[in-house]
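Chain A, query sequence.
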Amino acid sequence: MATKTKTSQGNKDWTDFFSAKGGGILQDLFDQPFEANDDVTFSYLLGGQGLMDSADTYQYNWLLVPGPGKMIRLFHSCFATTGKLVGINGCRSTAPFKQISISGASASITVPPTIRGNPDPTLPTLEQFLNVSEEEDFSNLVGNSKNPISDLARHPNSFWMHPSLFLTVSGPQSVRAAELASLILLSIEEGRSGDLEAPTEDEIGIYNLLLFLWAVEKRWTTPVVVQDPLDTQETFTACESVALRLNSWRDQLANNKSPRRNDKKRQSSDDDSSNSEEDPPQTKSKKEADQEAQDKVVQ
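Chain A, predicted structure.
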């Protein structure tokens, strides 16, 4: 199972940066309900420009795209430059910038015809998802709702993710869809209070995300092409601007720590000086030492 990246205070990564929130816009995004990200996700269905506009509107963003097989690639801080969409793949401090295929991410999910007609399969219900406890149970889940599986065509081939959910698996560049779903379900379950019969707002808010992950696990999504960004000055400047956010976070941490270290040094120096004033060393003058020596000879 994937775990959260743990780093020392001297080696902060993007996980720490986002977890700190810091107020303002970033805090507002954490405070939004999970279903708010559904609106953004569906807004760019079949519209690549809509995806780029979303990246421009939301400086802080978290995007999931299908990778090969049953894998999900995790991106954040995506931005538009020279007509391309670029994002950071993974949350480690050394995570690379990658260019994401806009047409691939904004296309609709296309379930193979052989699946659609065999025999009239349906989507899972929210209750089915919430009763899943193991990754393989999620992978093998068969829907029993009244909604046909063809409804997945109304979902784009990516998902605009809520930051709180993104951080449940932050660190790696990719993760299996069933594993991410299990981590999200576990996180929601831990936040549930009491034995409520009706689904909570958070549980309702993750339904479309779970549908997307389920489609990836079934291999009904299309892997989104990911490649190195263009080697141009404009792209470099845009990437550098995003990277500076993390560097400023490290610098702020270092500046906050250094005064404390200096204060300790100054305190130690002050203590030494204080002791010196209270208990000055008892030294004898040369005349007194010579007189003492002569007295010993006479004796």
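The radius of gyration is 30 Å. The longest strand covers residues 71-81.
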